[in-house]
Structures are given as structure tokens and as C-alpha cells.
Amino acid sequence: MDVDNDLMRLAGSSKMRWLSVETLHCNVLALRRCNATSLHRELMVKQKQHFLWWMTAVLLLAAFFRLFAIQDVPPGLSQDEVLNADIVHFIRGGYNALFFREGFGHEPLYHYFSVPFQLLLGDNVLSIRLPAVTLGLLLLALTMRWVRREFGANTALFTGIGLAISWWPIIFSRIGIRPILEPLLLLLSVWFWPKRPFLSGLILGVSLYSYTGARILFLLPLLLAVYHLLTQKSRRTKQKNLALSAAIVLGMALLVSAPLFFTLQADPTLQQRVDQLDGPLKALLQGDAKPILQSMVATAGVFSFTGDPRWTYTLPQRPLFDWVTAVLFYAGLSIALWRWKQPAYATVLIWLGITLIPSAVTPQAPSIVRLIGALPVVYLLPSLAITAVINALKSAKEPARYKPIINNLLIIAFSLILLLNLGRTVRDGFIRWPQAETTRLNHYQTVLLDIARNWQENPTGNLVVAEAFFEPIDRDSLIRNLGADPQARWVQTGSGVAGAVVFPNGGNGRFYVPEFAPPAPDLLKLSGIDRLPSFRSQTQPSFAIYELPSTPPTLTTITPILLGDSISLIGYEIFPSQQTSPLVVYTLWRVEKQLPADLAAFVHLENLEQTIVAQHDGFDAASVTLQSGDTVLQRHVIDADQPLEPAGYTLYVGLYTWGNRQRLLSFDQKEDRFILAPLVIDEK
Predict the structure, then answer these.
(1) What residues does 612 pair with on adjacent strands?
(2) Smallest Cα–Cα separation from 581: which of 617, 553, 607, 608?
(3) Nearest to 70 by CA among 219, 171, 148
(4) What whole-number distance in Å separates Cα of residue 504 and Cα of residue 351?
(5) Which positions ≥6 away from 101 have C-beta within 8 Å?
(6) Would you tell me which of 18, 298, 335, 420 could form a disulfide with 365, CB atoms 3.0–4.6 Å apart?
(7) How far apart are CA 207 and CA 109, in angstroms?
(8) Contact 614/605 with Cβ under 8 angstroms?
């Protein structure tokens, strides 16, 4: 009727009388179609704008959870993070590799990605963790775009919120290690499948340079091709095209990843970590299926029943979801299974199944780091369930007066789920986990972060730091927490070593000692250090500060003996005075020049037949950190395996390097050991 009325008005117009009714009818319909198309286009633009605004809000929320207190959560740097920063430093110095040997074997892509951050920001905590933050936010943004394309805007929004506020994606976007790169590259490869197979295959091949777990991703295009071949039997042309696309993807991926596999084949010792994780597979090959079945069951339950058993990234045995969100996850999984004939849902199922494998076939399952490739689809599945509920309620034929009530109930329900997940993340991820003693003591170098902050507040004197067992990575961690090198001297103290104290050249030394590495009381006493520290932190683990005397202690003096043209023996002391075993011997050394990094001292107790009956080997001052003019007081505990016979003995001392067991010679190149003192062991 509206069209007829329009025609009558147009026909009555003097300007339009020459047109036929048929022509007028066509023009009106075309005008209306044009208006409808224009309105549809405007609606699509508005929907896209609304989605972009919501996406921006989600990204800002995600950025907050990834940047807030970034130096404190995780609580200090892990050794893996420091090692990654070392590799970046090596790359800047010209060291390049397709697979780095350091850290039991590392794929290189993340380290090369981190180079610009270290160049721009310096070698510090921020440049270590910002690459992961960047990749995590990029993963979230691309996941939302991909989900919107495949499943709609609402599902994309809910998926993005899940990724933004959940602890699993948050922790791997805060810690400066390489796994977060794997799901990003996998997502990009899926994005271009199957229409742009060359690009999809290129990215899939590159993903193998991101993380060890990515090696299983070759199965994805293969299984997708099998799926399409089985579901497109009536469309021969499409079958052939999909088979060709799969072949191109696999071929490109193999071509791109071939240099990596050739490198690993040429030197299998590069990937020691893989050998450490193949226990269940080896047991299966030997006929024992129990270990791999246990890993598979544990991995399958990670969403609601089980959790990662380690403290490294989360509270142990913490499932990925609370029970409410887990129900939504299983509902979304059921929806995907029900709609498996639709390619988008089949892709999600195949993706999830493949990325569960690295955890399911390795020990200590479930491992959330080895499950990292599943991140996008794991948070997509609950979103499918939420969207299904919304769509079902929208299509229901309730009276109009109930619509506002239902909408309000939906808003309340989803708000409660959001608050539940937020509270769980804050409680477990930002409070309980980083404050737990196991996290701070065994997995992160929290005490070095606390020492660095104390030193920044009071940056006076020469810094001496104790560790239970010194590694260069400890020194690097302190430097990166400070953002500068304080030229600290390092020593080993605690129950596992004899112990040493360094008196820096120029005096004014401040000695930082973690609670897990207390110096022996007699070492403190002989060093002239007060038994009670001048300060003890309230953090966990705590550390104590001792003020070092301005001059080294006075021991039994000897004519200085110069060894290796770099260090001199200037004194010694023997305890206890009754000369019974075990003996505690102190040697005093003055550094003359730069020392070998693997320097060690030996003290031998020999009988009259010049047979070694007891000895101590060790130099508990980190020689690589010592400077010319420093003085080292080294403690030696000499305890014989058997009670010593009453007789005369002689104490010998010398230095050598661990690597080649080569002793340092005296200045005249004639002697490599020296008599400290004769001893007589009586019957007492």
C-alpha cells in the first residue's frame, strides 16, 4: 500500500507525468533498497564503533592487570628472566643463534623481539617484562578480532574480558619469558587459514622458534584438512582446494622451521630440557602406560579439578576456573561439540585438543606453561555459553513486561561472575601467591629485590652481598633490580659452605646477608663484625645488614706470598687452639689484580708420610666480583673422615682454577703450595 500511494503521488506530479507507472514503481523500489542498504551500512559502522570502544576498554583493563606493581608480582626476578636478559645482552654483543644453549635450550624468537626494549629502556626489570606485556596485550586484541569474525561481537567481548582478568593469561603477560609468543603466532596462523595458506604456513613455521611446545602445532593444519575432507565429500572441488591449502601450509611451515631442526639434529645436546621431560613417553615405549595416563587425566582436569603442582606461576593445585566459570566452560565445550560440523567450532575443538598434548605427555602435569598454546580457545568456550544464554533469552516469547526483569537479572548474574573472577585473580595472583614463602624463596629472587630497594634508599659505602651459593646470575639480578651496577662484592655463607668475608678496598663496607645464608659466628667474630646486625628487614625472606670494619682483621702474619701475579696470602689463623680435628683454619688474602672466575683455594692436612688425611677446597668470595686492593677472609673447615692418629701433621695451602685444575704458581714460578704451620695431634 505504501508503494502504491507513493506511485499515485509521483504520477500526479506534473514533472513526472511523462514516466510510466512501471518506471515509477522500479524507481521507488530502488530508492527504498538504497535507503535500506544505507541504513544497514550505518548500523554496521555504529556496531563496529561500539565494539572498538568496548575493545579499547577491555584492553585498558588488561593493561592495568599486566602493569600494576610489575616489579613486585612476580616478587622479584626469576632466574629464567635474568637468563633471558643475558641472552638479549649477548645478542646485542654479536652472539646469534637459531637455538640458544643457555638455560637447557631456548628458542630464539622472543629474545630477538626483546632486543629493542633493552636498547630503549636499558638493562632493567622494565625491559625484561615489557616484551611479555606487549605480546600479551597483542594476543588479547587479536583474539577479540578473530572471535568477532568467527563467532560475533558479544562472544568476542566476553572472551576478551576473560583474558583480561584471569590469572593464567595475566601471569604469562607479566613475567619476562618466551611462552606467551606461542599462542599469538598460532592465532595468526589460524587467522589466515585456509584462504592465504602461504602466509599461514609461514607464521606456523615461525611459531616453532617461539617455544618448545609449539612443535606439536604441525598437527593443526593436517587435522583441519582431514576434517574438511570428511565433511565436504559432496564438494570435490572444495576438497581439492582444502587439501592443496593444507599441503601449502605444511610445506611452508617445514621449510621455515627446517633450519631449526637441522641445528638441533647437528647438536642434540642443545635441547637438554626436552630430555628432562620425556619420562612418560619413555615409560610408554617400555610398556608402562601409567605415567602418561596420569599426566593425561591431570591435564584434562586442569579446568576445574586439578592444577599445576608447582609454585612457579600460580598457587599449586589451583584449577584454571572457579566452579561457576567451569560450568560455563563445559557448556561452551558441549556447544562446540554439538556444532562440530561448522568449521569454526571444529577449529576450536582441534586447536584445544592439540595444545593439551604438551602437558599430557610430560611429567608434573598439568603444566600451565606447556598448555599456553590453548589460551585463546580456553577463554572462548565459556563465552560461547554466555552468548548462547543471551541469544536464547532474546528469542524467547515472554510478555514484554518481563523483558526488563530478565535483562536486569542477566546483568546481575554476569556482573557476579565477573566479580568472582576478579576477586579470585586478586586474591590468589596478587596477594597469596607472591607473598607465599615458597614463591619468594624458591622460585624468585625476592631478597635481591628487597636488598636493591634498601640500597637505593641508602646508597653509601661499598656493597658486599652474601648468598648461599653464588652464581653470576645473582649479580645480574641485583644489577637489573637497581638499573645500575653497584660494583658489589659477593661471598658465599650459610650452612652449606665454609664462608668468607670481603673487606673492600677503601673501607666503608656494608654487608647484606639473607636469612637463609647466615655466616658462622666465629667468622663474624674474627672479622670484627658485631654479632647483632645494624638492621634486619621485615620482609620474607628477611636480610640483615652488618657494618664492616674499616680495616681487615689482624691474623698471624706471614711474609706475603704472591700467587699467579694476582693475589697474595698475607695471614692465617687456626682454631680450635687445642689442635684437634675438626680444624677451622682462616686464610687472609689481598687481591692484586683481576682474578680468574673459577678460582679455588685448598688446605691440605698431611701426615709425616706426606699423605693427605684431610682437606678443604673452596674460595667463598666470588673472585669475578673482587677488585684490586680488596681483602678476603676465607674460612676452611678441615674434618677428616676417620679420627686422626696422635702424630705430627703439616698444613699446606694453595690456589687453583676449577676448570683445568691448574695450580697458581708463586712469583718465582717455583712453588704451587705453601706450608702454613706444623701441627701435633695428641690423644685428646
Answers:
(1) 606
(2) 607
(3) 171
(4) 58
(5) 269, 270
(6) 298
(7) 9
(8) yes
Q: How far is CA 219 from the centre of its chain?
A: 26
Separation of CA 518 from chain center: 30
Cβ neighbours of residue 5 closer than 8 Å, sequence gap 6 or more? none
Confirm if 631 and 502 have CB atoms less than 8 A apart.
yes
Q: What are phi and psi of 609, to 5 degrees?
A: -85, 10
Query: Which grid cell is 4?
Result: 502504491
In angstroms, the CA 680 to CA 424 distance is: 68
Topology classification of domain 556-681: Coagulation Factor XIII; Chain A, domain 1 (2.70.50)
- Give the CA-trace dihedral at 470, 473, 479, 480, to 10 degrees: -150
Interatomic CA distance for residues 148 and 157, integer angstroms? 8
- Angle between the N-to-C axes of helices 197-207 and 219-231, in degrees from 0 to 180, rounded to the nearest 10: 140
The alpha carbon of 278 is separated from its chain's Cα centroid by a whole number of angstroms, namely 21
Q: Transcribe 281-317 into DSSP letters.
A: HHHHHTT--HHHHHHHHHHHTTTTT---SSSSSS-TT
Three-state SS sequence of 156-216: HHHHHHHHHHCHHHHHCCCCCCHHHHHHHHHHHHHHCCCCCHHHHHHHHHHHCCCCHHHHH
User: Exposed, middle or buried, 489 (CB in 10 Å: 0-12/13-18/19+)?
Assistant: buried
- Using alpha carbons only, give the angle 420, 425, 426 rounded to the nearest 5 degrees: 100
C-alpha–C-alpha distance, residues 233 and 178, integer Å = 41
The single-letter DSSP state of residue 100 is B
Which of 483, 496, 480, 476 lies closest to 624, judged by CA? 476
How much is the pLDDT for 18?
A: 45
Q: Which residues contact 10 (CB under 8 A, 6 or more apart)?
A: 16, 19, 24, 28
How many Cβ atoms from other residues are within 10 Å of residue 565's Cβ?
Answer: 13
186 near 236, Cβ under 8 Å?
A: no
Provide the pLDDT for residue 229: 82
Residue closest to 270 by CA, chosen among 82, 94, 106: 106
b/e per residue, 31-61, with b = 16+ CB within 10 A? Answer: eeeeeeeeeeeeeeeeeeeebeebbeebbeb
| Adjacency order of strands within the sheet including 583-591 | 500-503, 631-638, 583-591, 567-575, 556-563
Cα 426 from Cα 403, distance rounded (Å): 34
| pLDDT given for residue 205 in this prediction | 96
378 alpha-carbon distance from chain centroid: 20
Residue type, 431: I
Q: Do 500 and 619 form a contact (C-beta atoms < 8 A)?
A: yes
| Dist CA 252 CA 245 (whole Å) | 11
Distance in angstroms between the alpha carbons of the first and the last residue of the chain: 124
- Report the pLDDT value the prediction gives residue 394, as an integer from 0 to 100: 77
d(CA 682, CA 684): 5
Packed helices 290-300 and 343-360: angle between N→C axes, nearest 10 degrees: 130
HSE value, Cβ hemisphere, 13 Å, CA-based, for 264: 19
Question: What sign does the dihedral 377-369-181-172 (CA atoms) show?
Answer: positive
Query: What's the Rg (C-alpha) of the chain?
Result: 34
DSSP character at residue 528: T
Please give the average pLDDT of every successive group of 10 residues along the chain, which has 684 residues.
Answer: 49 49 56 62 76 94 96 95 95 94 91 97 96 98 96 96 97 96 96 91 96 92 87 70 85 95 90 73 84 93 95 96 96 96 94 95 92 97 95 74 75 90 96 95 95 90 93 94 94 94 92 95 93 92 94 86 92 71 87 93 90 91 95 91 77 92 85 85 65
Q: Which of 136, 52, 64 is nearest to 422 (CA)?
A: 64
Q: Are 516 and 441 spatial neighbours (Cβ–Cβ below 8 Å)?
A: yes
